[in-house]
């Protein structure tokens, strides 16, 4: 449909102006509250007609008169019948121009009429209402609808990702109940971010997956709690504190060997257990080969395999050295 000065509402206003002169002039000079009431009424009329831009005889014959002479509340009552509480206030937060799509007004009506007030409350407490905010609210889990999420999420994709991220947090943190997460969102400071909020909840995780190293080993100690992982990160001054989500998701596990080295494990496919991935020193510095050999031997004893770097040694090593054949990657 061709759009004019007032977007999707232009053609409908032209039709009503032909029927009742002065509708367009009244709309252009109206205050924001009345102007948005007109746009909302047009959206409802088009929804009832079934097809946007249909013929004049499908539009209520009295609507033009109401648009021309009625007050904002008269227009809204004529359009909606039972007017949802709070809808006029939401419309005032849109501004001068109409929302980009007629269906945005129907979404706003549904939010105002909803038994769950969190969506409408988030819109009231935020800035100007836009179609983007309505899309984000529609994608956002109703439990997390709040001005603090609405003002920090820019797209529906971000909202859906945030929903899934919270679900992950709740799977690893037994204290991250719906009420606790909603309260944490409500108490966010202006300078805080949703990423920091989730990180704070992750650092309280208490449902870590089973560790490949059994308890009770004094030489190779499994790090099975978030506090132990954070303490190791500080001790070795490495990036372990930024890998907490990998540990919580079961993508890696970490142990400490002889109180001097961190041992990294990774899961195998087909539920085949774990494999020794690497040994890390302080600040991820080099690790003596003798220490690596001792770690591998200890892992063999507890049934955790490692990549055998000794296969083909001897003659093969001399061949590689003489020919200058390079490693992959």
Model description:
This protein is of the alpha+beta class and 329 residues long. Helices cover 50% and strands 7% of the residues. The chain has helices at 10-19, 23-29, 32-49, 63-69, 72-80, 87-92, 102-113, 118-125, 131-139, 147-150, 156-172, 178-186, 194-202, 226-236, 244-248, 289-302, 315-323; strands spanning 220-222, 253-257, 261-267, 274-280. It has a four-stranded antiparallel beta sheet, with helices on both faces. α3 runs parallel beside α5 (72-80) and α3 packs across α7. The longest helix is centred in the N-terminal third of the chain and has 18 residues, at 32-49. The protein is elongated, with a radius of gyration of 31 Å. The model is unreliable at 51-61 (pLDDT under 50).
List keywords for this structure.
17 helices; 329 residues; 50% helix; four-stranded antiparallel sheet; alpha+beta
SSE arrangement:
Blueprint lengths: L9 H10 L3 H7 L2 H18 L13 H7 L2 H9 L6 H6 L9 H12 L4 H8 L5 H9 L7 H4 L5 H17 L5 H9 L7 H9 L17 E3 L3 H11 L7 H5 L4 E5 L3 E7 L6 E7 L8 H14 L12 H9 L6
Antiparallel strand pairs: 1-2, 2-3, 3-4
Total helices: the number is 17
Strands, count? 4
- Backbone structural class: alpha+beta
How do the helices and strands follow one another from N- to C-terminus?
A: HHHHHHHHHHHHHEHHEEEHH
**β-sheet strand percentage:** 5-15%
Terminal-residue CA separation: 55 Å
Helix residue percentage? 40-55%
CA-based shape:
elongated
The biggest sheet, with number of strands, parallel, antiparallel or mixed sense and barrel status, is:
4 strands, antiparallel
Low-confidence stretches: 51-61
Radius of gyration: 31 Å
């Amino acid at each position: 449909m061709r759009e004019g000065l007032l977007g999707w509402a232009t053609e409908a206003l032209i039709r009503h102006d032909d029927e009742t002169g002065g509708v367009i002039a009244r709309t252009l000079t109206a205050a924001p509250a009345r102007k948005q009431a007109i746009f909302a009424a047009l959206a409802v009329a088009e929804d009832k007609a079934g097809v946007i831009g249909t013929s004049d005889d499908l539009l209520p014959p009295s609507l033009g008169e109401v648009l021309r002479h009625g007050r904002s509340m008269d227009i809204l009552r004529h359009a909606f019948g039972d007017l949802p509480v709070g809808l006029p206030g939401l419309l005032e937060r849109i501004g001068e121009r109409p929302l980009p799509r007629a269906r945005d007004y129907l979404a706003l009506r549904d939010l105002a009429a909803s038994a769950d007030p969190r969506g409408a409350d988030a819109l009231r407490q935020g800035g100007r209402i836009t179609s983007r905010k309505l899309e984000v609210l529609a994608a956002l889990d109703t439990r997390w609808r709040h001005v603090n999420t609405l003002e920090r999420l820019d797209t529906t994709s971000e909202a859906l990702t945030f929903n899934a991220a919270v679900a992950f947090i709740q799977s690893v943190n037994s204290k991250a109940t719906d009420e606790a997460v909603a309260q944490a969102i409500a108490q966010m400071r202006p300078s805080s971010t949703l990423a920091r909020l989730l990180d704070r909840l992750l650092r309280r995780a208490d449902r870590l997956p089973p560790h490949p190293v059994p308890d009770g080993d004094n030489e190779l100690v499994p790090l099975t709690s978030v506090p132990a992982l954070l303490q190791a990160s500080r001790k070795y001054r490495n990036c372990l504190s930024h890998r907490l989500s990998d540990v919580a998701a079961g993508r890696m596990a970490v142990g400490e060997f002889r109180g001097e080295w961190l041992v990294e494990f990774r899961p195998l496919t087909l539920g085949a257990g774990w494999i020794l991935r690497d040994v890390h020193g302080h600040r991820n510095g080099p690790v003596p080969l003798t220490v690596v050999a001792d770690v591998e031997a200890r892992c063999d004893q507890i049934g955790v395999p490692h990549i055998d770097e000794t296969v083909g040694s001897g003659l093969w090593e001399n061949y590689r050295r003489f020919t200058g054949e390079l490693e992959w990657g």
